[in-house]
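Quick question, first post here. What does this chain look like in 3D?
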Amino acid sequence: MRAMVAIRPGGRETLRLVDLPIPRPGPDEILVRVKALGLNPVDVKIRGGYRAEGRSWPLPLGWDVAGVVEQIGQVVTRFKPGDEIFYCGDLTHPGASADYHLVNQRLATLKPASLSFVEAASLPLVGSTMLQGLGRQARLVKGETVAIFGAAGGIGGMGVMLARSMGARVIGVCSGHNTDYLRELGADEVIDYTRVDPVKAIRALTGGRGAEVVVDTVGGEGFQQAIESLAPFGRLLFLNAFPENAPPLSALNPLRLTNGALHCVMVVPSGELMGELAEHIDKGTITPKVEQVLPLERLADGHARLESRHGRGKVVIELDMKMSESIS
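> Answer (accepted):
Ran it through. Tokens below.
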């Protein structure tokens, strides 16, 4: 089978298209014919060497898959060959950038019939992360205000749609060229951080109180602005919790003074979360937002788009796509 692998930790130049054996499913695993693969910033982190110890190189990358069940293990009961499924795979075992991928049956669910494979592949990790973060960790309540930093990206945009579906008032923070896009997603107010101080703007929009829930998808210097935008007893969801983005302890002082809570959101993939995501899709409360579709051979171009940190929506690899058909 074809597989796009990182031959060693490093930059985009380490990506190579190679032939690998088709894997065989274990007792509770499914062999999936990958139709489309969604890209995420964590793919770039892994390729660059994040937690490289213990990984086997060359390494296929990626987790977000939409595809067709090719073969099932001996104790698999939830699926049969021919089923169209989508899922976020085991985050400790990347490897979906290939014609075939193995996944445990408990992580997958049936693909909504209304979605193409490309659309479905754009949703699993961002959808699961925001469902876990907003619903299980922040325990968002109808009528609360949610402020989302980096709201135009794949995960930020998902947060806008899900928060609105939960009955929240949504404030999106982005650069100026994405303001109309965020309004289309359903944001009640949009703040252009290149023109105004987002902390002051959020305070002004909330009568000086701040937002009950703040979502930081950016990390780094933006963390301080996110924490200063939080209302008393508010909940901050930190979605970029990699070591290089860890804030200094002094940055947490505002939480101590306002009795705020910090939640580092590292999603635990599950079929349950995927089932919830499918329900939202069927209700029309969330819709896929795909910015770019590329063939497997252009995976490096997809990584370049992620590294720019100015994307709108998701980048998806379509496995049956030809080089000449790529959509930018």
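The two ends are 26 Å apart (CA to CA).
Residues 124-137 form the longest helix (14 residues).
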